[in-house]
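WARN retry 2 of 3 for item q-0093 after timeout on previous attempt; input resubmitted unchanged.
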Amino acid sequence: MVHDFGKRLLADAAALAALGQLLSENPQSDVLSERLQTCAHKLAGAAGVFNLPDISGKASALEESVIERRAGRGFGETVKTNLHALLRALDANHGASRK
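OK item q-0093 returned
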C-alpha cells in the first residue's frame, strides 16, 4: 500500500505542477483555482494518514492560500510560494523513498 501511495505522490506532484502552470497563465480562472484547492486538500489528508507531516502541512498551507485568494483576501504570490514549497517537499520525499 505504501508503494501505491508513492505513485500517488508522483501523480499529485505532476498534477499540481501542471495546475500551477495553467494558473500562472490564467490567474483569474476560478476553475483552475478550485482544482488546485481540491488537489491540495486531498493530498493534505492522505499525507496525514501516511504520516508525512511535512507534505500534509505544506498541502494544507497551499489549500488555505488558495481559499484566501479565491475569497479576494490573499495574493497569487502566496499561492505560488506555497505551491513551490509543496512541490519541493514532494520531490524530497520521492528522493528519500528511492534510497
